[in-house]
């Protein structure tokens, strides 16, 4: 089972898109809970999270949040990211057989221009991150966010790559 963690700031629409994809995973028994970590949003992010049954924190410490996560595996996502068909079965199998972190494959449909892909580094959560809770707890430090944990994982060991694709959050943000 997974605990899904997202950080947001005034990303009501993007949060709704990501949460809608997670509903089927909750029905299948893969997602046990979703935690939304807020950075002083002034939009309806809290209402969206509440309507979806998420735990919403406007004041939080990452170490405390990780200790309270219900599942032994975590899925870190950016609001607006959308996992594509087939991800639930693949993640269930991955969790049953593996112990190391994993990322989703980038979407072949939504890609930045060639030169941009070469010049820029990929943001730490652009392809999501699945990792054991114990590893996240070991890496987390007070004041750190989800991106900091993802950077620490990237430095410690290269995560596995899942075949399932994810549409990155920047696609939803660019549609605004």
Principal-axis shape equals globular
Strand content: 15-25%
Low-confidence stretches: none
Q: How many strands in all?
A: 8
Radius of gyration: 15 Å
| Contiguous helical run count | 8
Sheet of most strands: 5 strands, mixed
The mean pLDDT is 91
Q: How are the strands of the biggest sheet laid out side by side?
A: 3-2-1-4-7
Compressed to H and E, one letter per element, the order equals EHEHEHEEHEHEHHEH
Tell me roughly what share of residues is in helical segments: 40-55%
Structural class: alpha/beta
What separation lies between the terminal Cα atoms? 33 Å
Write the layout of secondary structure elements.
Blueprint: E1 2-8, H1 12-27, E2 31-38, H2 45-51, E3 55-57, H3 62-68, E4 73-77, E5 82-83, H4 87-97, E6 102-106, H5 114-119, E7 129-132, H6 133-139, H7 146-156, E8 160-167, H8 169-174
Helix pairs in contact: 1-2
Describe the structure.
The protein is of the alpha/beta class and 176 residues long. The chain is built from eight helices and eight strands, in the order βαβαβαββαβαβααβα. It has helices at 12-27, 45-51, 62-68, 87-97, 114-119, 133-139, 146-156, 169-174; strands at residues 2-8, 31-38, 55-57, 73-77, 82-83, 102-106, 129-132, 160-167. Strands 3-2-1-4-7 form a five-stranded mixed beta sheet. It has a three-stranded mixed beta sheet with strand order 5-8-6. α1 runs parallel beside α2. The protein is globular and about 40 Å long. The relative contact order is 0.21. The model has no long low-confidence stretch (mean pLDDT 91).
């Amino acid at each position: 089972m997974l605990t899904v963690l997202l950080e947001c700031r005034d990303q009501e629409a993007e949060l709704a898109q990501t949460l809608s994809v997670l509903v089927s995973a909750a029905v299948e028994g893969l997602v046990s809970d979703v935690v939304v970590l807020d950075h002083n949003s002034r939009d309806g992010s809290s209402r969206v999270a509440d309507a979806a049954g998420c735990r919403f924190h406007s004041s939080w410490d990452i170490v405390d949040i990780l200790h309270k996560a219900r599942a032994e595996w975590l899925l870190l996502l950016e609001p607006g990211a959308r996992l594509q068909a087939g991800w639930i079965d693949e993640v269930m199998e991955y969790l049953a057989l593996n112990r190391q972190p994993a990322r989703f494959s980038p979407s072949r449909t939504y890609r930045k221009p060639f030169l941009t892909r070469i010049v820029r580094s990929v943001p730490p959560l652009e392809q999501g991150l699945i990792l054991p809770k114990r590893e996240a707890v070991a890496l987390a430090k007070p004041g750190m966010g989800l991106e900091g944990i993802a950077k620490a994982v990237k430095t410690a060991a290269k995560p596995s790559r899942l075949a399932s694709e994810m549409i990155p959050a920047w696609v939803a943000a660019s549609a605004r």
